[in-house]
Amino acid sequence: MGNMAALDGIYDATATDLYRLAFWRTGIRSDAEDVVQTVFVRLAEARGRLAAVRDPRSYHLAMAHRAAVDRRRSASARALPLPDEPDLLQAGLPDPGRAVDARRASAAWRDLPAPQREAIVLHHFSGLTFAAIGRVTGVPTFTAASRFRNGIRALRRLMGLS
Amino acid sequence: MMTSPTEDRKFLDSLTTLSPSEDLRARTLAAARRAATTEPTVRPWRALLVPFAAQPGWTSSLVALLMAHLAVGRFLEGARTARITSPRDEEVAAQPDLLQLPRIEGLARGVPGDGDRS
User: Fold this and answer.
1) Do A152 and B29 touch (CB under 8 A)?
2) Residue B15, strand partner residues
3) How many other CB atoms are there within 10 angstroms of residue B92's CB atom?
4) CB pair distance less than 8 Å for B9 and A124
């Protein structure tokens, strides 16, 4: 059961990042939860091979990225639209103005391409460098940086801030 | 209008995003426990490769193995081709004129052959 105790620790260390990545990538809360579960089931199944992983954080995030992409691909095949998830972004402080911003950002977020949403959450909320984002999502560093900047620009434009 | 990275950061710093629920933690770890207690299903070809791949320097060993496989394949193919194109002794014996055929054809065309020198 030592391995299971390790999984508990991995969950506590990584679940927030994995869930946010999956949520921003898929746009659906239930899909994000399924992605997190998928990652941990795969980790449990591959427990014998995990010792060779050099960068566990990137490894887990890359697993979540692939699971989220697969999830949306199958949803696209079923032609399922993104449901309303109005509370994706929330105001960090109890400020009515920022709460309005958060609501508008949450509404505008739906119009961003999934790779841009992913770059924003990984860089800003998870604190990954663009090089690390490139490793997680399988794109060059420059592409990861472009996705982030274009995503932020589009988000501000959609909200009428620029 | 272009925005600076500082403005972008300030904009995002005013927002926060969702975190997973406690319920998800319990469900996820329960699913992981179930997966951990079941034996992984390994495909036959992977079962053969995994112990091999665990050895240090396995890539060069794999290349050597492939080269050896190709060499054996070439040898067997060569042997098969040789058997097909080379007549057996008994086949030659059954056709005694086989070795004399060029000379006979040469005579028929009026071309001097080995026999003309004698």
Assistant:
1) no
2) A91
3) 12
4) yes
